[in-house]
Amino acid sequence: STVMQRWRAGDVTITRIIETEDASMSAAIMLPDATPANLAAIGWLKPHFVTDAGQLISSVHSLLVESCGQRIVIDTCLGNDKTRIVPQWNRRQGRFLDEIAAAGFARERVDFVVCTHLHPDHVGWNTMLVDGRWLPTFPSARYIFSAQDWAWLDQAPVSALGDYAGDSVRPVFDSGQGECVAPDFRITDEVWLESTPGHSPGHVSIRIASRGEQAVVTGDLMHHPCQLARPHWSSPFDFDKPMALRTRLDFISRYGDTPVLVFGSHFATPSAGRIVRDGDAWRLAL
């Protein structure tokens, strides 16, 4: 098990729970331009984000946010027991529930679950297998989804990655806990959504501000810190690549050279930093 990372932004605490972290997700799948040769030119990526051999290191994690007395889970990773075509995602048996409970987020006590977007590595623990049925993992939570993303996924054919709508999203609506919201929805006075479309039609990032300190959770508007240096590198999983690029450039210009702490939804440990100027590009300052 990994060391639990925890941050504060004013009165808000942010705790990272890692489900997987390694170099197993090949660049060919995640960011085809991120070859070892291309990455070699971006020296600051080592040692945290790229291996000595030039492989991308990435992570699937949840962020647990405590704000205004509310416990909020941002993105729910891969989940257990899910049938997936990706071998390391398939029928997992991980200790996620024990780890969030140890962090003070017992599943019965979570108030909100928010998914930045509806892809299988961000919705998995929305549900758990109980006596052969998929039931909401967090029985008292309001689950917050982008209305535009659900309208898209609800009509989408079952993905090659597996029926993640059926096993990880529909059961939450069936239980009456799913809520479709506009992309500026406020969860608390300190935590709200911000529209960052492109990777998915209704993709959102999460903004946090408390006592003058600020943070933002990217979602998948970028997959790896190398995209700060090379924003035009895009993921095959982007729903609308030109829109995703515009969103990425807009995000970097908005948060670059500001004190806002940026949490990358797939950034490897230490996974949060500030976007700072680096010649004619940008880098993550840890």
User: Average pLDDT across residues?
Assistant: 97
Rg, Å, rounded:
18 Å
Overall shape: globular
- Quickly give the structural class: alpha+beta
Question: What's the number of extended β-strand segments?
Answer: 16
SSE string, helices as H and strands as E: EEHHEEHEHEEEHHHEEEEEHHEEE
In angstroms, what separates the terminal alpha carbons? 23 Å
> Strand fraction band?
25-35%
Supply the number of helical segments: 9
- Uncertain ranges: none
Helix content: 10-25%
The strands making up the biggest β-sheet line up spatially as 1-2-3-4-5-8-9
Outline the biggest β-sheet. 7 strands, mixed
Describe this structure in words.
The chain has helices at 27-30, 36-39, 96-102, 120-123, 147-155, 164-168, 170-174, 226-229, 241-255, and strands at residues 5-9, 12-22, 58-67, 70-74, 112-114, 127-130, 133-136, 142-146, 178-181, 186-188, 191-195, 204-210, 213-217, 261-263, 272-278, 281-285. It is of the alpha+beta class. The strands form three sheets. A seven-stranded mixed beta sheet has the order 1-2-3-4-5-8-9. A seven-stranded mixed beta sheet has the order 10-11-12-13-14-15-16. A hairpin with a 2-residue loop joins strand 10 (186-188) and strand 11 (191-195). The mean pLDDT is 97.
Notable characteristics:
9 helices; 286 residues; 20% helix; seven-stranded mixed beta sheet; alpha+beta; single chain
